[in-house]
Amino acid sequence: MLEAFAAPVAAFPGVAVSMSATYPRRDFLAAGGILTGFLAAGGPLSLLAPSRAWALELKFLSSAEGATLLAVARTIAPHDTLEDAAYAIVVKAIDASAADERVRATVKAGLGALGGDFAARAEPARVEALRTVERSEFFAFVRAKTLGTLYASPIAYAHFGYEGEAFSKGGYLNRGFDELDWLPDVPLEDSGPKAGPAGR
Amino acid sequence: MTQIAQNDAGAVVIVGSGAGGGTLAHELTRRGIKVVLLEAGARESYATFSQNPGEAFVQLTWLDPRTTSGSWTVPEDYPGLPSWTAKTLGGTTVHWTGATPRIQSWEVRARTTYGALAGTSLIDWPIEYSELERYYELAERRLLVTRRQGNSGLPASSHFKVMYHGARRIGYRRVHTGYLAVNTRPADERGMCIQQGFCVQGCKTGAKWSTLYTEIPRAEATGNLDLRLRCHALRIEHGADGRVGAVVYRDPQGKEQRQKARLVCVACNSVETARLLLLSDSSRFPHGLANSSGQVGRNYCRHTAGFIWGVFDKPVKFWRGTTLAGIVEDETKNDPKRGFVGGYHLELAALDLPSLPLAGFPCTLWGRDLGFLMDHYDRMAGMLVNGEDMPRSDNRITLSTSVKDGAGVPVAHIHVDEHGNDAAMRSHAQRQGRAIYEAVGALRTATSRQTPATHNMCTARMSKDPRDGVVDGHGRAHDVPNLYVSDGSALTTPGSANPTLTIVALALRQAEHIAHEMSSGNL
After folding, report:
1. Which of A103, A145, A130 is closest to A4 using CA atoms?
2. Of B245, B218, B250, B223, which Cα lies nearest the Cα of B234?
């Protein structure tokens, strides 16, 4: 949703393009691929998941396109210790957006141009390939979707240490909003007393 | 609930319920004046504010498309969102951060202070600063601004400690937790700040002032307010006498309705205010209502803005704490020796994890540089530049010739060619910001480019000479005696202050003026 910041209007479903675009069922059957992987043993996800193996069904992208896309997402936002399963959520989100014919065409053409061996290339080669398409609608869309999806997932919250919603826990007023101890405290005249009835 | 008949020509119609419209609605209704308040958005509450950043964004943001062009970097970095405004009861006072500095005395004499700067359309404000000051005091009492009118400051968060010590080490002296309309203790039926950091998602304790839970319910309690939610104004109509007489709007069912009006106050946030006036063209006003000057939509200002990020090797956890509770005031002076006129604030700024990469970085940032920053999310500190930008005649809001909203109405197009002064200021401010973080041991610093405007200003500006602007010193249209502009559009120039306090101050003043004119039989 926050991708509205970075998505070109034309490619942002829900703004200018309807998400409810219809598509022929034949496409659905012909195109649908599958993306699979294994969770790292002992990783945070493996503790939650019923099985270490995961599989993601794609509706509009092929298995090969899904694998390329996952590598694109990892190149745009590389985090070595973040599992493929986190990036698979990005692939799933882009596959869902590809319900829109125009988005689908843009994504498929962009992935095709990167070549079938994109995922197998070393990172510098992947970066170089993406640099050449950096100003394309394809890249802008995939970058926005990657950033908009990857960091919004509970997996990311856990991985990057973001605590999310805090209202139900009473905020941080008494739970460490000022706990930083590697710098001195701020003098009272430049800050203020910690709340409460005597806070005025 | 009070109902005012659609053919009742005695009511004031206010379009928009934010800092300007919401405040004005309260001020008029409490004086016994009947008001119809049209709001395009729905009504949220403490209970319904989502704490999921993506959901909250959709809940509160104006998502109807807008298009953009010009040499500024926003079309590249934020093509889908050139301006970040709200569509919800309370308007941007729901998603604002509560920052309430004042515009300064020399800033209202912008043309006099800065001179004839090539490529700008600077003018002086038509009102004296001493006049504005009186209403600033009233506004600060109304909003309960910290560090003003006897209120204490907010306590220092971990995040502010980083900014504070960095700023002090490079020689800044006016560094503190800021002027914010955020309660440090329960007061005026608002709760207190619990330092949870979710300011822009809607404040669930009501510590942060918003017309949603102060001015609007108080206006409702007078029995003089007819609030119409999810009603989107389409055009303002005038009679043969050149006075406005009705507002046509789309109701929640998508049906056109027409409300008669004694006078109309437009407060839709600068982009939409200009759009509504431009959509209200007629044979008498072929270029848009109240636009004989051609100034409607022009001189669009949005503040010179941009993030500075510092990455440290020790935890900061900048999401904890009041989002904007920190400010450096030393650079708000006008000192052309720095290479630009006007001044800027540096303001503390944190973003939640999902928003940071989308709102906080330029589109050119990806790959290992992005990975490094995000890997340090819990060890980052952030600031936002808020500086005076230069008005330019051709930086303007027009009606899109290609894109229409869901109801088939042309959307707003935002064109900006940034003035060299803005770029020089941003560059200076971001250099200073980096120095602040380096002074406390930053491993690395990063910056954004211009960010989507949350401060939209000056598109129907106040002017002494009707040829230079759209409204007079009370916000009354030069062309139309019973049409007012009641939001940030009316600001003559932006100054370096976040605009809400000034909008509230002007709305308080305008309400007095309107009430006086009505009782004197002039309106």
Report:
1. A145
2. B250
Asked whether this complex has an ipTM greater than 0.85, the answer is: yes
B161, B165, B203, best to mutate vs chain A, most A CBs in 10 Å: B161
With respect to CATH, is domain B12-519 assigned 3.40.630.30? Answer: no
d(CA B319, CA B297): 36
Q: How far apart are CA B227 and CA B107, in angstroms?
A: 36
Main-chain dihedrals φ then ψ at residue B97, nearest 5 degrees: -100, 0
Chain A partners of B379 at a C-beta cutoff of 8 Å?
none
A contacts of B319 (beta carbons < 8 Å): 162-163
SS3 B296: coil
CB contact under 8 A, B157 and A4: no
Among all residues of chain B, which has the CA nearest to that of A193? B155
Binding-face residues of B in 36-55 toward A, CB within 8 A: 51-55
Mutate which of B195, B204, B317, B356 to test chain A, going by most A C-beta atoms within 10 A? B195
**How does pLDDT run across B146-192, given as a tens digit for each residue?**
999 999 999 999 999 999 999 999 999 999 999 999 999 999 999 99
Contact B274, B459 (CB under 8 A): yes
Q: What is the pLDDT of residue B49?
A: 98
Q: Tokens at residue B173, please?
A: 């002296």
The predicted model scores a pTM of: 0.95
Per-residue pLDDT reduced to its tens digit, A139-195:
999 999 999 999 999 989 999 999 999 999 999 999 999 999 999 999 999 999 986
pLDDT band at A31 (very low <50, low <70, confident <90, very high): low
CA distance B4 to B189: 28
Secondary structure in 3-state letters for B489-504: HHCCCCCCCCCHHHHH
Q: Are B492 and B469 in contact (CB under 8 A)?
A: yes
Chain A residues with CB-CB distance to B198 below 8 A: 165-167
